[in-house]
Amino acid sequence: MGDRVISPDHTALPGSSPPAAAPPSLQVDDLAFAYPDGRQALFGVDLTINRGERVALLGPNGAGKTTLVLHLNGILTAGHGTVTVGGLAVAKQNLREIRRRVGIVFQDPDDQLFMPSVAEDVAFGPANFGVTGEDLRARVDTALATVGMQEHRDRSPLHLSGGQRRRVALATVLACEPEILVLDEPSSNLDPVARRELAEVLLGLDATMLMVTHDLPYALQLCPRGVVLDDGVIVADGPMRELLADAELLRRHRLELPYGFTLS
Amino acid sequence: MAGAGHGHPLHLAGTSPVHRLPAEVKIVAAFLGVVCVVLTPREAFPVFGGYLVLLAAIWVVAGIPPGWMVRRSVIEAPFVVLAVLLPLTGGGPHVEWLGLQLSEPGLLGAWNIIVKGTLGVLTSLTLAATTSLRDLLLGLQRLHAPALVVTIVTLMLRYVDVIAAEGRRMRLARISRGHDPRFLWQAGATARGVGSLFVRSYERGERVHLAMLSRGWTGAMPRLSETPTTRRDWVAGLAPVAVALGLAVTGWVTA
């Protein structure tokens, strides 16, 4: 395994210090995990995300990004180490509340949107978490309004464009009022306009956000802080712009700015 | 109407009182109606006319053109062919018609199959024409169909089009590379395509399941609608069934 560069000073970022009382939205301590077939995917990950932070999780394919994400809401159970969300440990007895607190928007909206209509899909999450009646309707309305999809509420996801589906998928998670929003490759398969529209929606949210992506310019646009995961450990953590300006770091971890982009 | 885009080929969108009736009422009414028809003695010829008039009255209320119904009832054709054979092959006393020796029990048997089958098909078509798939699903849910069945049907409703589109893209990619199957022994690639579509759909199923778990799914579908079904809905929906029951009883008394 390669050498590791850790920039420890992200805690000094302006605006990233939490309100004194609030526990961090996400705290991962020494998380290790091996799949049942013996393949070790995480080797002791430490990551703290404070309330209101927007963090990009970068790393080459196979680095363990998806494995890490599936630990955040207890789909995978840590082999070693702990995950806490807003002060609550990810453990079997807390699973329902954990899944409400961690809103994962999956990469393919067709995997996420499975109900016959948009509004029903947005209602699915909060209904599972016990919201009913007028409250449920209000949640659905607010979430759809946030992503600008109210007028499509009764349509089938099948008849929406890629960008619209992505925004509805986001709404299905927003309706659960999560503590932290986890986005898996939010910009994949979007045309430039849809990509920009999604960015505008995301920037308008007052939410803690962890965004898994290969799209470095998008990460730079949306996230002040970046974290690089490679070979199952965090190898760099710092201001996004500094990470992307470090050509040597990017090269070592198979990250690359698109053609024509330079940062200094 | 909610769930637009989930019309099926047998559905005729509309806003008539029949369309607006809750699906579970219509499912129960259709089922009981068919039971009445089946229990009617086959010799009670005028009673069957009564059933047809009853259905026609429902079509008028629902705004379904009779021609629309007739075209869709050709689904029944294979059974009619079977029924037509009965008078020619049946035993027992025979009657002579246009120089043909026709079996009397065979004739009655054929009539029995055709008239009850037709009425059954027309009743089902009426239910299908006035109820979207989504509403049927809601009806099943309210009639306490097993949660697993409701879940499977919900997912099928959503993903049949997704998988069909995936299949179309795979086929396009195949023929774009010069695949042009004309004979059975060239169908190998198509068969492998179907196989990989199955595997892909299976993997998608796993991803959908993960996404559902992430939003707190615990095994039961949330209620699709909270609009309660009133006693009035039941009375309105079961009124035609009462008429059908009356007809069936008439049939028993007179036959």
Describe this entry's structure for a reader.
The complex is a heterodimer of chains A (264) and B (255). By secondary structure, chain A is α/β, with parallel strands linked by helices. In chain A, helix 4 (118-128) packs across helix 5 and helix 5 crosses helix 6. Chain A has a 6-stranded mixed β-sheet with strand order 6-7-8-3-9-10, sandwiched between helices. In chain A, strands 2-1-4-5 form a 4-stranded antiparallel β-sheet, covered by helices on one side. Chain A is built from 10 helices and 10 strands. Chain A starts with 25 loop residues before the first strand and ends in a 12-residue tail after the last helix. With 255 residues, chain B is mainly alpha-helical. Chain B has 2 domains: 2-140 and 227-254, no CATH class; 146-214. In chain B, 69% of the residues lie in helices and 3% in strands. In chain B, strands 1-2 form a two-stranded antiparallel sheet. The model of chain B is unreliable at 1-5 (pLDDT under 50). Classes of the chains: A alpha/beta (264), B mainly alpha (255). Chains A and B meet through helix 2, strand 6, helix 3 and helix 4 of A and helix 7, helix 8 and helix 9 of B. Chain B: Keywords: Cell membrane, Membrane, Transmembrane, Transmembrane helix.
Main features:
heterodimer, A: 264 residues, alpha/beta, B: 255 residues, mainly alpha, 2 domains, 10 helices, ABC transporter ATP-binding protein (chain A), nucleotide-binding (chain A), transport (chain A), ATP binding (chain A), AAA+_ATPase (chain A)
**Residues in β-strands, percent of chain B:** under 5%
Structural class of chain A: alpha/beta
What is the terminal separation of chain B in angstroms? Answer: 46 Å
Low-pLDDT regions of chain A:
1-18
Strand content of chain A: 15-25%
Average pLDDT reading of chain A = 89
- Using only CA atoms, what is the Rg of chain A? 18 Å
> How confident overall, as mean pLDDT of chain B?
84
Strand order of the largest sheet of chain A: 6-7-8-3-9-10
| Overall geometry of chain B | flat
- Give the count of helical stretches of chain A: 10
- How many beta-strand runs of chain B? 2
GO molecular function (chain A): ATP binding; isomerase activity
Family (chain A): Belongs to the ABC transporter superfamily.
Organism (chain A): Pseudonocardia xinjiangensis
Keywords (chain A): ATP-binding, Isomerase, Nucleotide-binding, Transport
